[in-house]
Design goal:
It comes from Saccharothrix yanglingensis. The chain is an alpha/beta fold. The protein has helices at about 10-15, 15-25, 40-45, 60-70, 85-100, 115, 125-130, 140-145, 160-175, 210-215, 230-245, 255-270, 285-300, 310-320, 325-335, 345-350, and strands spanning about 75-80, 105, 120, 135-140, 150-155, 175, 185-190, 195-200, 220. It has 2 domains: about 10-220, Rossmann fold (3-Layer(aba) Sandwich); about 230-355. Helix content is about 45%, strand content about 10%. α2 packs antiparallel against α3 (about 40-45), α11 (about 230-245) packs across α13 (about 285-300) and α12 (about 255-270) packs across α13. It binds adenosine-5'-triphosphate and magnesium ion. Magnesium ion binds near residues 88 and 154. Adenosine-5'-triphosphate binds near residues 59, 86 and 235.
């Protein structure tokens, strides 16, 4: 039983019943080491209304097919794209579908070391009994290999190049040597089902160019932002409703307010007037989080659903951050573009423009 107070249990826990049902009905062939067939894994991710499987990722289903095929060939899968396009969510869902486990995850960053990728030691045991499989502390990559599971490597391009390079031989030879351990324990061979899903942000790419040798070991898939307004609106509605319920908010978000919010995000992405485009990334993920904050404000400050004025209050912190130019652009948008729109909710947004700071 899961702890209901967990803020965000992993996908295999959140959707345990869906996974169990899919597994039961799954008659299609499965690649060696996989928990589900490709067909069932795809249904888990894109949903299947008739079978009561929820849609979790919105986007091109052929992207999912290509990704799953890549993994079945045991090549690495690299998901690239703008921030907030659900790369991490997709990698979590794929890992949960393919391995039944999405928590073998390495979070890449400037301080990531090889120890955090492969293995380290329990120093108390190491000192008292020397190197042994008891004193070895396996990191996600080693566990994924030994157990035949998908390993997720988040933000791989932010890792130092030597850590990226340490993956090279591992991915081609499919073995990790542990020189300290004698005998057969000193070689950990990868089992069927082991593969790597990495994610990388197109914005951070310059920080640490990915090594060319590593690039060759991955198939790249680009995850694009949601193109269609209605689809994005539905996703923001579904996700924010769920988050608000979890936060103890007693009323669902208002549709008209969400419409204004999603449309505003799209405008500030430069979808309408390029001049409105902010330098901050106005991703769907951010739209969901603003919709959540708007609902919280309405409920906990006034006991009602969030209003367009709450949208303005929340936008400053999300959209403009600490960038004065973005704040000026946002102000201009609220003053000039918003009043041209018809509808009471747009007028309310316009009236609330003085709530922007500064
Ligand atoms: N196409 C989509 N399908 C489903 N959810 C989406 C989609 N696009 C954005 N989201 C929303 O964004 C959230 C996931 O963002 P996630 O952290 O996975 O993005 P990311 O691409 O990894 O971002 P970053 O580059 O900042 O790490 C989801 O929880 C969901 O609410
Ligand atoms: Mg991410």
């Amino acid at each position: 039983m899961t702890d209901p107070q967990l803020q965000r249990p992993p996908a295999e826990v959140r959707f345990a019943d869906e996974l169990a049902r899919l597994r039961e009905d799954d008659t299609a062939p499965r690649p060696p080491g996989w928990a589900l067939s490709l067909v069932a894994a795809r249904r888990f991710i894109v949903g299947d209304e008739r079978a009561g499987i929820s849609r979790k990722f919105v986007g091109d289903p052929s992207l999912i097919d290509r990704s799953l095929v890549t993994l079945a060939t045991s090549r690495g899968l690299m998901l690239v794209g703008e921030p907030g396009t659900a790369k991490s969510l997709l990698s979590e869902l794929i890992a949960a579908a393919v391995s039944g486990e999405s928590t073998l995850t390495i979070q890449g960053g400037a301080a990531t070391t090889e120890d955090q990728v492969k293995y380290s030691w329990n120093y108390a045991l190491l000192v008292s009994e020397g190197p042994s499989s008891r004193s070895l502390v396996p990191a996600p990559m080693l566990r994924g290999m030994a157990e035949g599971k998908v390993v997720r490597f988040e933000e791989i391009t932010r890792c130092p190049l030597e850590v990226q390079d340490s993956l090279l031989s591992l991915l081609s030879e499919r073995v990790v040597a542990i020189p300290e351990l004698p005998g057969p324990d000193g070689m950990v061979f990868a089992r069927d089902g082991f593969t790597v899903i990495a994610t990388a942000n197109t914005r951070d790419r310059g920080v640490n160019e990915m090594s060319a040798a590593l690039k060759r070991r991955f198939n790249f898939e680009t995850v694009f932002p949601i193109a269609d307004f209605r689809t994005e609106l539905e996703l923001v509605e579904q996700e924010s409703t769920r988050l608000l319920e979890r936060s103890g908010v007693g009323v669902p978000p208002r549709r008209d307010v969400l419409e204004v919010l999603v449309r505003t995000f799209r405008d500030l992405r430069g979808a309408g007037q390029p001049a409105d485009r902010l330098s901050t990334v106005m991703s769907t993920a951010e739209a969901v989080s603003v919709a959540h904050a708007v609902g919280l404000r309405g409920w906990y400050l006034r006991g009602e659903a969030g209003s367009p004025a709450d949208v303005v209050e929340c936008l400053a912190g999300t959209a403009a951050k600490d960038n004065a130019d973005d704040l000026a652009r946002l102000r201009r948008y609220l003053e000039q573009q918003v009043p041209r729109r018809t509808g009471e909710q747009w007028q309310a947004l316009h009236r609330a423009r003085h709530l922007l700071p500064g």
